[in-house]
Amino acid sequence: MGDNIIKFLMLEDDENLEVVSTEVKDGKRIITIRQRLYPHFCPVCSYRMHSKDTYWRTVNHPVMQDGFQLELHVGQRRWKCTNPACGQTITDEFSFVEKYKHNSKQTTLMIVDAYRDSNITTAQIANKFNVSDTYALETFSKYVDMKRRNLTEAVCIDEVYVDVTRDCKYALVIQDFITGEPIDMLRSRRQDVTEPYFADLPLAEREKVKYLVSDMYKPFIGFVDKYFPNAVSVVDSFHVVKHINNSLRTYLSKLAKKLRNQDEERHRQREAAAGKELPFKTSKEYYIVKNFQWLILSNQDRINYNQPSRYNYKLGYYIDLPGIEHMLFDIDPDLKKLRSLKEKYIRFNNSYGNDPKKARPALRQLIQEYRESGYPMFKDIANTLDYHFESIINSFIVMKRFCADGTHISRLSNGPIEGMNRIVADMDRNCRGFRNFEHLRNRFLFSARKNARMLASPLPREKYANVTGKKRGSYRKKEDAADSGKEQ
Predict the structure, then answer these.
(1) Residue 223 shares a structural domain with residue 245
(2) At what angle do helices 133-143 and 105-114 cross, to 10 degrees?
(3) Which residue range(s) make up the domain with 453?
(4) What total of structural domains would you count in the chain?
(5) Local confidence band at 403 (pLDDT 50, 70, 90 cut-offs)
(6) I want to staple 464 with a disulfide (CB 3.0 to 4.6 A). Which of 106, 137, 141, 487 is the partner?
(7) What is the mean predicted confidence (pLDDT) over 22-30?
(8) Which stretches does DSSP call E strand in 85-133?
(9) Same domain, 363 and 456
(10) pLDDT tier at 8, thresholds 50, 70, 90
(11) Is-contact 206 228, C-beta < 8 A?
């Protein structure tokens, strides 16, 4: 029975262990172990040693998952040399726990491995393994030091909101488009951070990059000319559609505001005529524009117009999506033409995958149509498309990608990095923010990379300690409790 428990607890590396007793007490499973008695000889003079006394240690070893909190009571004997001229003393050593430590080595491995789950917080990990938040955090920092990976043929870059400090609001994520794994994460997208970083990368490595995929943020596009001599810029198609939709959304917001102002003016006139205050009611026109503008912004081929009619309490009758759409066009006839212009870009974007040569004249024609549309909004969009013309055409290039479910051929885009940024956003939300960017970076890279490895030996304290330059003062319960939500 004792040997089975030792194997179950993963302590079989120490062949001299024996189980003295096991008991369940106060919701805890307590296992008492010690080393078997065998002759000890002095390491100094080789005289026989005798057992002087036993020191009992409580070691946290949370391997069992049967609803009990596990405790190991470890008997550590002290041995003294029988040679009066020597007097050397030693104590029993155990392979599963370090000297002066209260947690087994296996606990350390399990704590670090738990950080692979980006949805779990340090507090939850600490509670799971019966350690303090500080211990869990320091254990991860000691054994995880994620390094930058080499740049590849296709690189994606995008910013993600982290709000760690005033100078660390938007972090820059760099991703390998081919494997979908993160290359690195910078504390800021600002030039004073990105310029020394990319300039210090080996030129031979930067020359390997052929495609730099980003949104339409000008500094990102400028990276190509500054740092990557053999690369071309690729503007992600999603962000082009988003730019067009943002222009439409602004137009719809102004239309809704105009209708709201008309409602308020009519309300004031009714109150003046009645000579008393009346309840304010918005018009059906304002309600339709405010709540159903998604019919204009959504891709038309993704809208299910076959849905049955539903009773609308605001309108007071049954109506289907084509009916609501007809009401929108009655409110502002320009909406039909504006949506049609938007849909032309979406059809263009979906029609020339893996054929940038044919996409080139089609985009020229579309830009010309936007300029001749008579709508200032689409004239501005045409100017944007013309400015990013080559980068947009490059987005029709396809490459082989290696994903978890196999190999795929896909267009160059920032879609994979947008999904990866969700990991950062979810971590930030679950942990209620981070104070230390290096910890955030390590956590993100450790959880987002496949088979990320921990260090074989711990880092020295000066390498991972969060030194702020300010000595911690006395404990102030209210202030510390209010700030305790943020992960270090």
Answers:
(1) no
(2) 80
(3) 154-236+400-483
(4) 3
(5) confident
(6) 141
(7) 81
(8) 89-91
(9) no
(10) low
(11) yes
